Amino acid sequence: MAQSTKPPIFDAIDLEREIEEEFRKQERETQPSDFAPLSVRAPDMAMPDYVEHRDGATEIGKLSAEAVVREYEAAAKDIEALGVELVENVKQCEAMNRDALVVIEELKETAERYRKEARRVFLQIENYSLVMSEVRKTCAEMREKIATPAPVETKPKKSERRAAQEG
Questions:
Q1: Measured distance CA(44)–CA(86) in Å, rounded
Q2: 148 DSSP assignment
Q3: Which parts of the chain fold into alpha helices (H)?
Q4: Cβ atoms of 86 and 57 closer than 8 Å
Q5: How many Cα atoms occupy the beta-carbon half-sphere of 116 within 13 Å?
Q6: How far apart are CA 50 and CA 48, in angstroms?
Q7: Residue-wise over 90-109: b if at least 16 C-beta within 10 A, else e?
Q8: What does the alpha-carbon distance between residue 140 and residue 146 come to, in Å, rounded to a whole number?
Q9: Do 47 and 71 touch, CB atoms closer than 8 A?
Q10: Which residues contact 48 (CB under 8 A, 6 or more apart)?
């Protein structure tokens, strides 16, 4: 395998030159006659019923009038299509509105259930609070009874017994 003595930059320049030559060669081989001729077609749309050619109009006038009326008709059909599309959008909006009303009713019901549950929990907490208050009161009374010593009965003295008997 022989190594190139040229620096790599010269290889790149040679490659560019080869590409340029190939393009020039293709340009010489390709002639305008190789392409298919462009054809002009009249639109597929027939002339609308609301217009009719008048006697005596020139061919150019007729063709121009037809072209213009076709453009207007195409625009009118596009406008009608927008109307159909708008009707579909309105139907979607109405469906969304109905669905939203159903959801709103469900939300109201859910909110009412939350309020009922809140009331139940509120009353339950207050009832527990009342019970706890009674428990504390009972405990305090018990503590007082336990803390206060019971009076010890002692035998009355003889003199006290006699006074009680005489009296």
A1: 27
A2: S
A3: 8-29, 59-147, 158-166
A4: no
A5: 6
A6: 6
A7: eeeeeeeeeeeeeeeeeeee
A8: 10
A9: no
A10: 69, 73
Tokens at 41, concatenated: 């077609």
Please report where in the chains the tokens 């009972």 appear, as a residue: 138
How far apart are the C-alpha atoms of 32 and 36, rounded to whole Å?
A: 9
DSSP state of 55: T
0.85 exceeded by the pTM? no
Q: What's the chain's Rg over C-alpha atoms?
A: 55
Amino acid identity of residue 115, one-letter, is: R
pLDDT of residue 49: 87
For tokens 């063709």, what's the residue? Answer: 63
For 52-80, how does the pLDDT look when each residue is reduced to its tens digit (9 = 90+)? 889 999 999 999 999 999 999 999 999 99
Asked if 48 contacts 69 with a C-beta cutoff of 8 angstroms, the reply is: yes
Compute CA distances 143 → 115, 137, 150, whole Å.
41, 10, 13
How far apart (Å, rounded) are the C-alpha atoms in residues 84 and 76? Answer: 12
Structure confidence by residue, pLDDT tens digits, 109-158: 999 999 999 999 999 999 999 999 999 999 999 999 898 877 777 776 77
Place of tokens 């207007």: 72
Length of the chain: 167
